[in-house]
Design a protein that fits this description.
Length: 306
């Protein structure tokens, strides 16, 4: 990742495409990229999905006074405001076909024309685009222009969901509670590591804001967690307890004993499911001779006759 970011830093004119689930922190990454080489220059954020189609053209290109009802003054568009810096287009996949065409022309010609104006204005900016959709699929379905896609993905980044970045959870927690009087117990942190975080970083951030506001100071305990964490809390604690017990047994009796216990439990369940050695071997993807030998060693033959 560091080498990739250095590449972007050294090539500040290249457009960047960031993909990932909603809430994974795409804007945070975009701001970081902007700061690598364009700190102090414009960073303009546009949430394409939040702007009605009837307004998106005016928002991006600007307009002249009197060009339409409600246009009481001249106004610069986001592309014009981003001149010399970056424009972050979040959910770029939601742009209409017409806006995709106009946007592509801006990237090709380096100029914009406000609504109601006949004068073009030169603009120069880098695009950092983001989406939670697969643009390859949208291109195949002819819902996104291939030429625009190629323009945007000068450099591509995929941000994994938070559930696949377990180590980041503690780092984010520490960041959010910095300069507060809040502390999270290890039991609570374990629950957070075991939670799926469907809303990703955004969900964690909002939850930590709530905890800090309600708790104000002291330790956050398991009893402080809301209902949404209950099942995850119990599962995490049960899982941790299970592995703690296995670890203690390995220390006392050796690793082989523990591994044999696990293999025996799996084999026993497979036999009860299939009632047949051959099917059992296929189910747990091992060889029939191995299953036959382990059945004898573990004394599980009686299961086949029940």
């Amino acid at each position: 990742m560091l080498s990739h970011l250095n590449y972007i830093k050294d090539n500040e004119a290249i457009n960047v495409l960031i993909t990932g689930e909603s809430g994974v922190g795409k804007e945070l990454i975009a701001r970081y990229i902007h700061g690598l080489s364009k700190k102090g220059r414009p960073f303009i954020v546009v949430n394409c999905a939040a702007i009605p189609n009837t307004l998106i053209e005016s928002v991006l290109f600007g307009h002249k006074k009197g060009s339409f009802t409600g246009a009481h003054e001249d106004r610069s568009g986001k592309f014009e405001l981003a001149h010399g810096g970056d424009v972050f287009l979040d959910e770029v996949s939601t742009l209409s076909e017409e806006m995709q065409t106009r946007f592509l022309r801006v990237l090709q010609e380096g100029e914009i024309e406000r609504i109601g104006s006949h004068t073009t204005r030169k603009v120069q900016f880098r695009v950092i685009a983001a989406t939670n959709e697969d643009l390859d699929d949208l291109v195949t379905a002819k819902k996104f222009r291939l030429d625009l896609y190629h323009r945007l993905r000068g450099f591509s980044m995929v941000i994994p969901p938070l559930r696949e970045r377990i180590k980041d959870i503690d780092l984010l927690i520490d960041h959010y509670i910095k300069n507060t009087d809040i502390k999270l117990t290890e039991e609570v942190r374990k629950v957070f590591r075991g939670y799926s975080w469907p809303g990703n970083v955004r969900e964690l951030k909002n939850f930590m804001k709530t905890i800090i506001a309600l708790k104000k100071k002291g330790k956050v305990l398991l009893s402080d967690l809301p209902v949404q964490f209950t099942s995850h809390k119990e599962a995490a604690l049960s899982f941790e307890k299970f592995y703690d017990e296995l670890f203690e047994k390995a220390k006392e009796q050796g690793l082989k004993v523990v591994l044999d216990d696990i293999e025996k439990a799996i084999l026993e369940q497979a036999l009860r499911t299939t009632k047949n050695q051959l099917d059992c071997a296929q189910l747990i993807k091992t060889s029939p001779p191995t299953v036959s030998r382990r059945i004898k060693e573990f004394g599980l033959r009686k299961i086949l006759h029940n």
